[in-house]
Amino acid sequence: MTSEPAAAQPGPELLATAEELAAVVAGLGDRISARYPDGVVVIGVLKGSVIFLADLVRHLRVPAVIDFLAVTPYLAGSGRIRLVKDLDVDIGGRDVVLVEDIVDTGLTVSWLLAELSRRGPASLAVAAMVDKAARRLVPVPVDFVGISVPDVFVIGSGLDFAGRYRNVEGLFGADPVALAADPDVHVADLYDR
Ligand code: IMP
What we know:
Elements: E1 13-16, H1 18-35, E2 40-46, H2 50-57, E3 64-71, E4 83-85, E5 95-103, H3 107-117, E6 123-131, E7 144-148, E8 153-155, E9 171-174, H4 176-181, H5 187-190
Parallel strand pairs: 2-3, 2-5, 5-6, 6-7
Antiparallel strand pairs: 1-9, 3-4, 8-9
Helix pairs in contact: 1-2
Bound molecules: inosinic acid (IMP).
């Protein structure tokens, strides 16, 4: 009896090259610089936003204070998000841009906007490298959108699966079922060896 060959895994699908993403981020830097001529506080949500934020702030032509926070991931059913690392700076009276890797259901950003608004910023806006609007469960204003994608699981440029792939350049759509079965399934595809 011969066994069936294993079905080939579909490779990750390129959504944006590093060059395309760089052009988009430069454009966002221009828009944010124009909106905040007196400077801005840029808040990154750890860890996924780190690469986007580092690229974005280098395109700002206005003074920028950079800070970070971290939250527990929203777990379906628990209904709870918690700050696990708070800001060091006081954002009272400041213009603030919250920088996210991706807005998916919107639950995290919505919670963060409520939390940060309580601190009395002069203004509060959201910049997201990736917007996955098809998955939104709560409406959230995303003022500065990098790339809009359909309902796909995205890896690369800060976005991970189980801690992998954050340092892959560009953005790729991947199969979350294949990743769940083997988190390293795309390592050979996405890294030079
Ligand atoms: P939310 O569903 O909008 O609350 O998204 C919360 C977080 O889930 C994001 O900040 C990401 O860290 C993570 N996430 C959502 N969609 C993806 C994805 O396609 N790839 C990797 N991480 C994701």
